[in-house]
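Exercise 7.
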Amino acid sequence: MSEKREGSLEAPTRHPIEWKTEKYHDKADLFSELERVYDICHGCRRCVSLCDSFPTLFDLVDESSTMEVDGVDKKDYYKVVDQCYLCDLCYMTKCPYVPPHEWNIDFPHLMLRAKAQRFKHEGAPLRDKLLTSTDTMGKLATIPLVDVTVNALLDNTLFRKTLAATIDVHAEAPVPKYHAKTLRKSFTNKRLISASAEPTPAGRTTGKVAFYATCYGNYNHPSLGEDFVSVFEHNQILIDMVPKEACCGMPKLELGDLESVEKLKQKNIPVLAALVDQGYDLIAPIPSCVLMYKQELPLMFPEDEQVRKVQQAFFDPFEYLFLRHKAGLLKTDFNVALGNISYQVACHLRVQNIGYKTRDILKLVPGTEVKAIERCSGHDGTYAVKKETRAKSLKIARAVVRQVDQQQPDYFASDCPMAITHIENISEAVKASDHPMALLRKAYDI
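Solution. The predicted structure, written as tokens, is:
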């Protein structure tokens, strides 16, 4: 028998998500597991500084008749679930009871199970279905001239108040603009090197990447494509566009709509796997999308060889550049100092366990200081725009805002463009902000 002990010294391991089994959707079994895990969390409480799931749980316990989990009405269990946006930080950075510990705590994936069970039996509000249908919304909103109308309406106070009253999208939450000239439309192959040139492998990298634009990058932030092409080609890395793509599935995962995640996987994985067979590595500009292919899809489909193939070929873009740097292949001919940068490390980047490669690359630029802020921005993609969670998102963001305000940086940066928008909207100290790849391009002066 193994000796019982506080905490775990082994590296955390993740179990497959058994979402197609009857047990996964059994309500009695789910609530039994929720009670077990909530009781352990109540006795530990070291995750209280993360999202609002834990303060919500602890308040429910402390205000109950017994001041224990058994005093909490089970119908209130979902109040905890509703505050979890699957950032994964509790699992990766705080919890001492994750597997292989015998208590086997995986709080985010337990919350996912609760979300999936509720979605399966009750569905979801229209607002949540719309906000997570990123491809549909993006295609409609980026029709030429329609994009102008949509953007004008989203800037209109009266329209935003109507939106808040009808579908509970907060009237003051910043929302992204849409662009008729999407990233996929504007992406060109004006190479600095010949398309026929042989790529130079280095370590795990082939020197030849396929760029997965993501919904946000494609519809809302198309200039990212130009930044990526400029920086990667400057470093003699062949870069092509993924020929066809759909949403990675992360928004639907957070909603608990796992069948939609599977449908999106069936659209994307064959295309990406074919690119890997052609010698391409894979990159994407949004950490959540990278994490989807590195972690969530492999856990949902552990027996799918194509999913595993894509997982092994997917890189965070700055992870990729750092691997090239280690091999002496990253150019350091920087011409523009970036000064003082406040850099918020996106949650879905932290949990990839690759270290702070964005920070490390930016620090190579002479005349540049980078302060990494290891706190959640509170945005999540939908959490910060929902009427009922907007105030909580601002509360979570305070830790980032406080550090930015103290630093008074020349630039605020995050690998998550939505985090950038969220923080610059509430911090008075942000003079300029941008994606780190745009800053790197500026440093190269290209």
